[in-house]
Amino acid sequence: MLAGLSRAAPAAAKGVSADTVNTQFVEVGGRKLAYRSVGKGKPIVLAHRFRGVLDLWDPAFIDALAAQGFQVITFDHSGMGLSTGERSYSPPNMVKDAKDLIDGLGLKDVVIGGWSFGGIVAQIYVAMFGQSVSHAVLISTTPPGKLVKTGEQLFYDTAAQGPASLEQYTTLFFEPSDASSRAASKRSFERIFARKTGRSPEVPVEWAMAQVPKSPPNPIFPSEEVLQALKNTNVPILHLGGDHDISLPVENWYALGGQLPTLNLITYPRAGHAPHHQHPEMAAAQIAAFIRNTRKAQP
To answer: How many domains does the chain have?
Structure first.
């Protein structure tokens, strides 16, 4: 049952932006999945990062994607933010959230995307339901299998801190040693927290940190099945990353050069774990160009 929106219709009216659009809900599987939809056109469904909820996407990035002619759909996973149900960081459960949302909205020919942990969700989605998606957009995530470079302890220590601060945000997601990156972090942070009403509650830090290792694991995503699926998929895949990602180093994608036949890589200089928040318009334009100019290979 779909609450608050007719089936498959875009939620956002003309002129509505990411920081003003209303939250809507899909009722499926005994829980309500909270989502927001901005723009009209081909649907892009974005799964969030660890501890991410609806209001922790930079609205400038969402609006820039919508301006490229897409319906951009973001959502809260079960039991997190404004969604009900059982809370879990189990990737299969999170993939089910994405599938139930897409099916509940009646979306077809979808671009599946995800940032960080959400990128793992998107990769599993491609492996399981590749026939129903046209493209995959991965942002600062990790590939399956053994890594050539692990993340830094600094990320884990900083992520365990309580209420969000600008300094924490800059350390986790930008390049603190670069003045332009720090300035971009401040602008992004202010945009994210500009919305004062109807915000999606943040994921409790104590619960979240209990779900993950306290130091960088290797591998993070130990799935040979997903790796094999990516090696044999015909779904075009784009990965956007920063050149100094202290969480999920982009070098791990370059190590798979020649093994993933549909993988496209873009790396931003002097950037960290959120290049799409540092360069929202550029990232949106590059994602749009990728989607418009690549197609699934014929079997």
So the answer is: 1
- 3-class SS letters over 198-242: CCCCCCCHHHHHCCCCCCCCCCCCCCHHHHHHHHHCCCCEEEEEE
Q: Rounded to the nearest 5°, which phi and psi values hold at 28?
A: -160, 140
* 218 CB neighbour count, 10 Å cutoff: 14
Considering the domain boundaries, does residue 257 fall inside one? Answer: yes
Cα gap 81→204, rounded to integer Å: 10
CB 42 within 8 A of CB 68: no
Query: Omega into 219 within 30° of 0, i.e. cis?
Result: yes
Distance of alpha carbon 286 from alpha carbon 280, whole angstroms: 10
Residue 210, domain member (yes or no) = yes
Least Cα distance to 196 among 19, 7, 22, 16 occurs for 19
Check: pTM over 0.70? Answer yes or no: yes
The parent domain of residue 84 ranges over 2-293
- Say how far residue 41 (Cα) sits from the centre of its chain: 19
- Residue 299 falls within a domain, yes or no? no
Low-confidence ranges of the chain (pLDDT < 70): 1-15, 299
Pairing outcome for strands 2-3 and 24-28 = antiparallel
Q: Give percent of the chain with pLDDT exceeding 90.
A: 92
CATH of residue 134's domain is: 3.40.50.1820
Evaluate whether residue 298 is within a structural domain. Answer: no
* Predicted confidence (pLDDT) per residue in 50-70, tens digit: 999 999 999 999 999 999 999
CA separation for the pair 275, 130 (Å, rounded): 26
- pLDDT per residue over 251-297, tens digit each? 999 999 999 999 999 999 999 999 999 999 999 999 999 999 999 98
